[in-house]
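> tool_call: predict_assembly(chains=two)
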Amino acid sequence: MTIFSPRRFWAMVVKEFVQMRRDRVTFAMMIGIPLMQLILFGFAINSNPQNLPLAVLSNDDSEFSRTLVTAMQNSLYYRVTNVISHESEARKLLDRGEVLFVLTIPQDFGRLLARGDRPTVLVEADASDPTATGFALGSLDYLFSQSLNRDLLGPLLSLRAQPGPVDLRIHRLYNPEIQTKYNIVPGLMGVVLTMTMVIITALAITRERERGTMENLLCTPVRPFEVMIGKIVPYIVVGYIQMLLIIVAAKVIFEVPILGSLPLLLAVSILFIAANLAVGITFSTVAQNQLQAMQMAFFFFLPSILLSGFMFPFQGMPQWAQWLGSVLPLTHYLRIVRGIVLKGNGFADIAPELWPMAAFLLVMMVVAVKRYRQTVD
Amino acid sequence: MTLPGPQASQSRPAIDVTGITKSFGGKVVVNNLSLRVEQGEIYGFLGPNGSGKTTFIRMLCGLLKPDSGSGQCLGMDVIRDAALIKTRVGYMAQKFSLYGDLSVRENLDFMARVYGVPDRKAAVSHSIERMSLARYADQLAQTLSGGWKQRLALAASLIHGPELLLLDEPTAGVDPKARRDFWDEVHELAGQGLTALISTHYMDEAERCHRLAYIAYGDLLAKGTVEEVVAARGLTTWEVSGPELYELAHTLKTLPGVEQVAHFGNTLHVSGPDRALLAASLAPFHQGPQNFREVATSLEEVFISMMNDSLKGGKG
């Protein structure tokens, strides 16, 4: 016996290729999914996000204040989505994550500026995700002085001198120390749940079919819906154990401040866990073998990480990618977790994120029950 | 026709279906099959591999939906009441289909729960005792040997006290002693009124059934008691013993009237459908060194003969 026989080795290679060709679905997934993801993520992901939503609270009607707003828009970092008239509105918009910035221009801004009193301009930023707002905030100082300098002509020319015509104050809300971990650790809770819940249940029914136990199960009076929820419930418990572990770690190891109500977080998480389990069960009814089920789980997992706002700022993605991301439960769950943990959101603030998850769960359950074959053909 | 099942004549049949047909991808697997099994009867279901036995059994227990056909099973409509039938039928699949990572007791307990068996704990304990599984009760099912797995599967299919047992090649890969025990068990259950439809490849098992049906490539070719099936085929069989049987077998196969020549240890069995023609073909060989003796035709020769016919029909 030789230690290495090219003939024996080649026999293995040929057999692997024949088997690969037989499992068409898996083969198509191996080629198709990477291509799709390349195109999808290549265009969607932007780590220097632009067009971020900005609310303007202007108490001054001078040309200088208009210049400031125009300059922000022209920088492409900002997009004015709300014009508001009261401070309380500003906070609400930030709390709900509808805008990332609020620009407040004080009364008599134009007059004070002209007098050379360096009026204060306040920019409040949702810094819970420091990477989303970092570049935009960094550009502000330069942006303001450059744009105003164009207006400062004639007798106002002297105001161009340092330290700039306005006194820019930036408030980084929710995460004033710009700690990335404050954003990442609560987010990881959603990611970990997505990963384990989807994979575990994706294998659940496929395994019954592959091991032949499905045949026995189908002969019993057990109904599809009973099988589904019977397989989901035990993993909801597992999901909660994971959550508790992460919450404790966040608090003890990472020292993330938890501002909101933990019971609220635990309560709404059931929707998210169930939605992920339903995805897994659906894959499980579609996949023909465990390998395919795994591939599908990853096919779901990747966009969940990349398009949900976990890895890259959600607001920085093109509109179509945001729509796609809005379908995924993780997108909404991240907002809920970060909202409750970092912003101290209450139920009213997170309510808008609940129904998309509920709708997703419902659709997945319907697909799963429809796809679950009562017969073996 | 006399029905040999113990309680055969007294009430409605356990299975009574007509015209059951099923195709997969344009290929007819079960073709217009009609079958009647009386209560308390052990009905053997025979046929070559891929003949549609498994498909037919799966249709009876609701795992597959027939393309056409109708009938009743335990008095319920096989198409409409499939869900109800499931609660009163025990099914044992060809392949072990209980959970390998559960123990014997856990598997039985699960089945008992799913069927909603009253007084579950007692039912499980009783089942373990009855099937002599006590020694393995806490062992994982995947670690059992083939014979014990089969006993567990039988126990599981009986846990809810079904009226009809559908067993798909229950004894494949099981040693003779375990097979004997298994059949004793089935007969005892039949004595208590249970009906059993059992598919098998083994001729000795076929002979243990009250009645049997033979299907090949989707078609029902014969049914009745063993004697009836053998008689209906009308084969004549000679047993040949002596030296040089291998050479002789080759020669005999080419003769007119000889349908099959098979080796049985130190003898040859030669059979054919035409008694006179076969006798005439064999006559010249009587002077040779071998002994010729006419014997009773066995079930095996009958089935091989039927199989050859259906293959010639181009259906295989």
